[in-house]
Structures are given as C-alpha cells and as structure tokens.
Amino acid sequence: MRRTQLYLEDDAWKALHVRSKMSGLSISELVRQAIRERYLSPALQRREAMRALVGIRKDLPEMEDAESYVRALRRGSRLDRLKK
Predict the structure, then answer these.
(1) Is 67 a domain residue?
(2) What is the DSSP letter of 62?
(3) Is the whole model's pTM more than 0.70, yes or no?
(4) Quick one: pLDDT at residue 78?
(5) CA–CA separation, 26 and 28 (whole Å)
(6) Does the residue 1 lie in any domain?
C-alpha cells in the first residue's frame, strides 16, 4: 500500500466525514472503496467470475473422449437441414 495526499472540495470532505461517522469506516477506507468501485471494478468482477468457474464441473462425470462427445452433439437433423 502506498501513501498519498488528496485535496478535496469542502462539500466532498463533509460528505466523507458524515459517511465515515455513519459507517464507522475511516475516510481513507471510504476513498479506497470508491477507487476500487470506480477504477478496479471490472478487473475485480472478472477475477470473481473466474473464481466462480473453478470446480464448476466437480460433481459431473468426467468425459472420456471429448471428440466423441462433441461429435455426438453435432449429430442429428441440424446437419441434414444445413446440407439442403
């Protein structure tokens, strides 16, 4: 973590001060949260989405042969319709 200094307008400072008292969080933590939400949110959302995918198939049986599985999915009337 790095230390920095900010200059805030009076109304922004007052709003942060009120929110700090209401939430019990420091003004620094409120600023860090706002920065994360505004500038890092897409990256965090992607990371959370990727973590949600981990183990998604753990309760499903393993496929012995992926090629056969895909070919079985491709069989059927759809291919016949495309040939016409």
Answers:
(1) no
(2) P
(3) no
(4) 66
(5) 5
(6) yes
